[in-house]
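Sequence only, no structure available. Ideas?
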Amino acid sequence: MVRKDSVTPLQSALEIKGFVEVCLKENISVICINKSTKKDRIMPFSAMYGNNKEFWLQHSSWDYFFSNDDLQRLEDKLPKADSRVEVSEDEDTGKLLPITGEENDIQSGYGNEYVAIAKMNDAERANHLRKDKERLENLMSMKPRQEHLVTEALVETARDAILHNHASLVNAESLAPGDAKKQTQELVDSTRDLVKASIQLLSTDIFNNELMNALVLKSNGTIIQHMTRVYLNGLSFLSYFNKQVSSSHVINRIRVVFDDKYRGFYQSLLPHIHPDQFTLERIFLGGMRAINENDFYNWATGFLIHDIGKATAVEYHEGEAAYNRDIVTEHVKIGFANIVGKTNYPQEAALITGYHHEYYGDPGGYGIFRSYFDQYKNSNSFVKQGYCISYDLPSVLDYKVLAYFPAKVLEIIDVFDSVTDPQRKYRRAMSTEEALTMMRDEFILKHPKLDLILFDIFSSFAMEAPSVWNPNKANSIIQESFSGSRAFQNRLNNSSLRKAFP
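Reply:
I predicted one. Tokens follow.
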């Protein structure tokens, strides 16, 4: 238990000019005390500040303190201890950018549709999404099911939700967290209702469906195309996963081949765990199981808005510029900070946004989780993660596991979409088979970034999809009454990748 006479609240300390800069330079720690349980934890100031530059001012379930000893050390570093903080109007706060006439690079990412949506107020946006939800609900009751109408509606309503959410976050940027969350609440509720309707209407057949891809390409915004595909393909895979885990012998089949196929991979991730302790329950904390309804809805929301932070550097993300790690990593921080600080979306959705490039701690990855964990270890050197993946938030936030289940799923979907995307300027679009081969070689065998078990299930899912992406057919499909093609199916049936999953 922390004694009150040994600590000082951050809010009073950080009113002093220059204090933030000194805290960052000295790598100081923050004492975080839960208001209800009174439990405390130590977190690095720099990591918390990097995600939210006013975290100590927000209404939350935590109080934040400096130890008096640390406070004295910081004060000794200050050139002027009695000055007040002055925030420059030019300070870079990592904000999302609105779209104006001069910002064609952002419009190229979000498409022409955004211009009209950006002019709406939040009530109008929420009403638009409610009409989208009604459109989906009407299709649920239609008999017989009209697949081309369903696919068209799923694509267009997902696009609408992404655009409305970005526009709403732009408008909320200048507001205090409490006011921003109040302003965006109606849109958040409407988006959540739309996601639930999409899930009820979705079938696994939409994965990489030629009609779906062709319709997505009708939007001229490259980021919108990517986010829409990842959202719909991600939901399709989660549905497939649940079906496999619930109604087949997939878990038993994994156990049978675990020693030969999987043990070595996971031992490399958890080298401090004794080899005899590696079971499926060591990989998935609490065991491998189907995703419950509430988690499904929350994760689907995270999939929908996962790349909302890319709006600050669209020209880079969709162009041919040389690799810049700072720009690449920034979209994760911005998206996470905006969802946490400006909306009441579930924490699960925010973590998916911030964690979907972690790549099991590989140097090529990045994200919020590793930033927190690396600096947490500086103050808690004894901590070691004992499991690979968790479905549940508490074990992720308490550093018991290496990764969060939906973020590991999204990593796979995200990489797959990037390498099969025909609109990317810097590489030729791969076929499904080429993409899966490359991902296994580069993201698992050479560098353990993706999860091997989830990837094997995804590979089976991708190869079993009734229609796979052929970029050369996109325009013809739209012109042919939205009739999907299965031109590649025979070739895929004979593919060795079809047997990737045991």
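The first strand starts at residue 7 and ends at 9.
Hope that gets you unstuck.
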